[in-house]
Amino acid sequence: MKNIGLFFGSFNPIHLGHLAVANFFAQNSNLAEVWLVISPQSPFKEKSSLMENHHRLAMVELAIEGNPKLKACSEEFDLPTPNYTVESLQYLKKKYPENQFTLLMGQDNMAKFERWKEHNQILEQCHLFVYPRSQSDKIPTRLLKHPKIHYFEADLMEVSATEIRNAIKNKKPLTNLIPDQIEEYFEKFNPYH
């Protein structure tokens, strides 16, 4: 049975921070692969600022090209929105019964985890690997010591998609924020318009 890391995100757009997290877990854990699961709509985010699904999928595929341990996953596109992790997890477990899944998330999401729909059910179904973030609320004590939640130490990579969207809007350089091939994609397709 392969252990697959699921890294959920809107990837709006995918940036060097996302890639640092995905690569970190692909190289420093027991995961066979890391799937970047592109969410059409998070229950915690406004849909209005989202690029169309096909643009976000194309950019994730471009960004991970040539890395056999990373895969783009568009399974959530076929599920009802907003997407709840617990439902997506059940869907993936049914569709890929030969795999076991581990959720990958930043420490900032772990601090809000108890607000997630059926968060206890998620913990029953899989392990969680948590990547450090400097900007994070306090994590509840019960989640700090939970046997299925594993905290990793890694270099902090602080990049935000909001920062990137603002840079694009204000025609500022995107160096050190997104991979070169994603910058080229923006120039070619201008997906925000």
Describe the structure.
- The N and C termini lie far apart (43 Å).
- Helices cover 36% and strands 18% of the residues.
- It contains 8 helices and 6 strands, in the order βαβαβαβααβαβαα.
- The protein has one domain (2-189): HUPs (Rossmann fold, 3-Layer(aba) Sandwich), CATH 3.40.50.620.
- It has 193 residues and is an alpha/beta fold.
- Strands 3-2-1-4-5-6 form a 6-stranded parallel beta sheet, sandwiched between helices.
- The mean pLDDT is 90.
- The relative contact order is 0.19.
- It has helices at 16-27, 53-64, 85-95, 107-111, 119-125, 141-144, 161-169, 180-189, and strands spanning 2-9, 33-38, 70-73, 99-106, 127-131, 149-151.
- The radius of gyration is 16 Å and the shape is globular.
